[in-house]
Amino acid sequence: MKKLLLFTIVIFFTIILSAQDKDFAQDIIETLSSPSMFGRGYVNNGDRIAANFIGSQFEKFELKTFSDGFFQSFSMSINTFPDTVEVKIEKEKLIPGEEYVIFSSSPGVSGTFDLIWALTDSSGNLQIADIKTNDDLSDKVIITDLNQRKFSGQDSLNPKGVIFLMDKKVWWHVSDGGEINEYFQLQVLKEKIPPETKTVSVHAKNKFYQNYQTQNVIGFVRGKIQPDSFFVFTAHYDHLGQMGTEVFFPGANDNATGTAMIIDLASYYSNPENQPGYSIVFMAFGAEEVGLIGSSYYANNPLFPLDKIKFLINLDMVGAGSEGIKIVNGTIFKKEFEKLVQINNKQQFIHSVNERGEAANSDHYPFYAKGVPSFFIYTLGDECKEYHNIYDIPSNVPLTEYEDLFRLLTSFINTYKGNE
């Protein structure tokens, strides 16, 4: 009876501890995705507010720094829309973020413009009606149902703007925000623009920063056996920010989840009972969404020699997991990939560990390009679908396999000799 009682108590506290870990992560995600962070972008200093919060967490866990503080500052060019953004179809005002977005590369614009329809035919060919070779389109807006990546010719046509029709949702990105284009571009829900529509009204006031200063947030736990060798956990904390005065993009899964996990790992390894053999560094990068700028800056300006990194694990969008995880660079670093698979097979943490080749799609890549062995890990599963839109909110992020991924990562670190 006593053994049964003891077993019950152990199981109870294990469950409580696990729940507290997940609850802690959820609280971090809620905070980072809240309106007070302004989408962790470059309107109202959302990036700085988020960085200060992460720095406060690192300080709470008494992480060490490589310099005078947790911040590594850098600058970049970025176009923003902190003020008016308004789109009307005939007289109907559209809902920003829900029914339209304006591309980050768009210039400021104000006026009502005639529409030139450029739709695809049954063969997928673009048909631009009522345009002659020498027509001046500088005061007209082309509207098309062609995918924006496939649409070409708008530069030579010299339009005032281009509207891309979207079937279900609009999505935003800031990767093109480093410079201002000659014309504005919009995504608009197809259902909001009837085929007979003749005009569109657009009012958007932009603010371009040539040298916007932002930052990475970096701290570490010193290893007890080999303190001058490092494991590195990374995640980008930035997101898309705010578009106009009415809408911000929360970025709960992308990437408040990864940021929450590295903060949680920092908490775990800062506990003296869990002090690792190697030092472990936690890097929260800025400006990933602008084009891996924060991680690229660090890789070119490291705070310790890159060849001292034993392994780097980048976490980006880890809010799902019902179908396992994907390991970018899994086909490159086979030994480490197989180690993760073996641990998972033995412990039955998650559904599956799946490999993928190299890809320049997140913050691991600037390190990998310089020879640092690295993985980028993201979770798989249809339970977490929202991406780069206003619906990427905490309630849509179930953290299905958060705790098991956490255990898999710490088990992986513990297999290295410096931690024995």
Query: Total helix count?
Result: 8
- Count of folded domains: 2
CATH architecture of the largest domain: 3-Layer(aba) Sandwich
CATH topology of the largest domain: Aminopeptidase
Quick one: biggest sheet?
9 strands, mixed
Rg over CA atoms: 24 Å
Description:
The two termini are 36 Å apart. It is built from 8 helices and 19 strands. The chain is α/β, with parallel strands linked by helices and 420 residues long. It is 26% helix and 28% strand. The chain folds into 2 domains: 24-79 and 210-419, Aminopeptidase (3-Layer(aba) Sandwich); 84-204, 3-Layer(bba) Sandwich (Glucose Oxidase, domain 1), CATH 3.50.30.30. Helix 1 crosses helix 4 and helix 6 packs across helix 8. Strands 2, 3, 4, 5, 6, 7, 8, 9 and 10 form a 9-stranded mixed sheet that branches. Strands 1-11-15-12-16-19-17-18 form an 8-stranded mixed sheet, sandwiched between helices. It has a two-stranded antiparallel sheet with strand order 13-14. It has helices at residues 2-32, 46-60, 154-157, 252-270, 293-300, 334-347, 365-368, 402-414; strands at 71-80, 85-89, 92-93, 100-102, 109-120, 126-128, 140-144, 161-166, 184-189, 199-204, 207-221, 226-236, 241-243, 247-249, 278-285, 309-315, 325-328, 353-356, 374-379. Residues 1-20 have low confidence and may be disordered.
Features:
single chain; Aminopeptidase; nine-stranded mixed beta sheet; eight-stranded mixed beta sheet; 8 helices; disordered N terminus
